[in-house]
Design brief:
The structure is a homodimer of 337-residue chains. The first copy, chain A, is of the alpha/beta class and 337 residues long. Chain A has 14 helices and eight strands. In chain A, helix 12 links the parallel strand 5 (262-265) and strand 6. At the A-B interface, helix 1, helix 10, strand 3, strand 4 and helix 11 of A face helix 1, helix 10, strand 3, strand 4 and helix 11 of B.
């Protein structure tokens, strides 16, 4: 309104609003902290410095916008994975819900263990038993049916310790980091060992990450005509691809076809994704979330049966990757705190 | 410059530039034809009507921006596929280039046929022979090495009939359609029977489609540490997934996780992708490029050995899908005409 007081300032009238519009985000982020849930530690400084470097067109570390790919593990990196993976809690709930249709489960392991609440017998069934539970609850239906089942469960099921929706147990500092990356032109991806269609129904709402930017373990899917003549995609009881460890860079190449500039994980299953990211040319950022806060969340690393962080922690130390100390670096872990 | 002549127009000084900036595309497309290489036929009208319907927020056919996914076959849909698939021309050139390192090829089919220029013997080697040529020339190297080979070839190799770069043989009307879709908020994808990493090095430059929006047939790839200790992704001589026919909707689900709103193909290999697109709710657009112009390009359909269009043509007629008659609907086929 003030730009047109005098006729000789008429050229500003065109230029200034454009600058204001184009620079809107830039000035907002200069004035307010885009990472308010991070303490003012070296970790936060390394993130902010990286972001400034890759977006500084005049600097030597500039990364062209189309190359700004950031990949994040999900379980233990973006949300809690204790005491059991959320997807596994979903599988247990589905076994209970489907039991009336499967009378044979009453006498067959590992299903009997789930129905009896016998966690010891369940653990004894080992990886093979857990695999059977996953297949029995995640396959044998169309993709649309599975999506509906996930949406129904995730919108009501509660975490046993926090008595809150699982989607409340996402890490607020990481939500802020995802938003900061996107505001700086990054495409943010999830690259998870969890199965891809368990995540897609809710990642856009919770993380701002659309389905097409979610990569994960997948089941064999086949195209066929349904009974009404309409085509369906049917989920077969067979793993198609395990998106973990060396599978992560392989799947990143398969789906994205570009090497990430930034990658974040929390366990040895993310080690190769970080190595692949680190091996690219130019600016790179490799991050690990280290679970060090038994009071607000959990503390675990080298000896944990879930999200073990051992070899990757050594490699991070040897190569100078950023290790987020949850207790020291995060002012707030969950938004409800 | 004219907005500030009088003080009482100062409020326009702020508002007008914003409108001009925000509405730049909208007003431009209202005034200029975004599809100048299309004749004014029913086909063009159906495209324009679809675009208006899905973007009209007040209408019953509105499609929310995040759901605007458009998938395109590549060979025969976005560029010429005659007299042989471009990727196959690349394979033949690579056999010749690699022959000095493979003396055994002089006496072994189908390599001998390629080196002798004996197209009859090559054809006699059948699909199995062609598969061996593809594996021998597309695998056995790192992803980075393969990308460099493709870039070198595609920037120099010429089409035998037109004596031009293969990337000059893209269809100008389809380039305009891709741009129109993107200007209306669509994400444009390639979903091709061709191998994905043969396309990714040049699709952004030629079609405006970035690598992460290119889907195709893939080879098994493995992660390993190179001799210098740096990780590489190595292309193994084994097909991972055939992105053709029913494989197209399967791969669309795997990679995108959303059903397309618009899909375009040109052969029976695209039939299931169009069926899957058609089976979604709300507005849909299914298109087939029918090669009807033997003078400017080629004319072929039901009996062609490349890009056979037979069952899909019948289904298009039965279900009212849009069939582009290249000769009648396209004012210009290639930009160099």
């Amino acid at each position: 309104m003030a730009f047109c007081r005098r006729r000789r300032r008429s050229s500003s009238a065109l230029v200034l609003p454009l600058i204001l519009l184009l620079g809107a985000f830039g000035s907002a982020s200069a004035q307010t902290d885009p990472l308010p849930s991070w303490n003012e530690t070296a970790t936060k400084q390394s993130i902010v410095a990286f972001m400034q470097a890759v977006t500084d067109r005049a600097g030597s570390k500039f990364v062209p916008p189309e190359q700004r790919i950031a990949t994040f593990d999900n379980d233990g990196t973006l949300w809690s994975e204790q005491p059991i993976y959320v997807q596994f809690a979903f599988a247990l709930a589905r076994v209970k819900a489907l039991a009336p249709k499967h009378p044979e489960w009453k006498t067959s392991q590992p299903f009997k263990a789930v129905l009896d609440g016998d966690m010891k017998a369940l653990a004894a069934s080992g990886e093979k038993g857990l695999g059977r539970l996953i297949l029995a609850t995640h396959t044998g239906m169309t993709t649309d049916e599975f999506t509906r089942t996930v949406m129904d469960w995730i919108s009501t099921a509660q975490h046993p310790r926090f008595k809150r929706l699982y989607t409340d147990l996402v890490y607020q500092p990481m939500i802020e980091l995802l938003a900061l990356l996107r505001s700086n032109g990054f495409k943010t991806y999830i690259v998870s060992g969890g199965t891809v269609e368990f995540m897609r129904p809710w990642t856009e709402r919770v993380y701002g990450i659309p389905p097409e930017q979610v990569i994960g373990t997948s089941f064999l899917t086949t195209y066929r005509l349904g009974t009404d003549g309409r085509p369906v995609l049917f989920r077969q009881p067979k793993i198609d691809f395990v998106d973990d460890g060396p599978g992560k860079p392989v799947n990143i190449q398969k789906v994205i076809g570009r090497r990430p500039v930034l990658a974040f994980g929390n366990s040895d299953g993310d080690q190769q994704m970080l190595e692949w990211t680190a091996a690219g040319e130019g600016s790179r950022f490799m991050g690990l979330v280290h679970h060090t806060d038994a009071v607000r969340e959990w503390a675990y690393d080298r000896r944990s049966h879930i999200g073990r962080l051992d070899k990757a922690l050594d490699e991070a130390a040897a190569r100078g990757w950023t290790v987020v100390d949850m207790k020291a670096d995060w002012k707030k872990i969950f938004s409800f705190e």
